[in-house]
Amino acid sequence: MTNGADEEAAAENQPGEGAGDQPNEAAEPTQPAEATAMPPPPGEDAPSGAPPSRGGWVVPRWVVAALGGFVAVALIVGSAFAIGRATASGGG
Question: pLDDT tens for residues 67-87?
Fold first, then answer.
C-alpha cells in the first residue's frame, strides 16, 4: 500500500493536466495538413479500360466443358470394357 505520493509525483510529470503555463507545442500543428491526391507511381500510367472483374473463371469455360466431356466418355468406355471382361466366356 502506498500513501499516494507516487501517484501525485506521476501526475505532476505528465503533460496535459497540471502542465502549468507551458503550452504543449507537439499537440498543435504548425501548418494545416493539405488534402491532396497521391500522384501515380513514376513510369506507370493510369490503367485504361474496365478494371479486372473479381470471381471470374481461372480457365476458359470451353476447357472445363471439354474436360467434362472427356471424363464422361472415358467412364462410358471403361464401364463397357469392364462389363465385356466380366461377361466374356473363358474360351480362348
Answer: 999 999 999 999 999 999 999
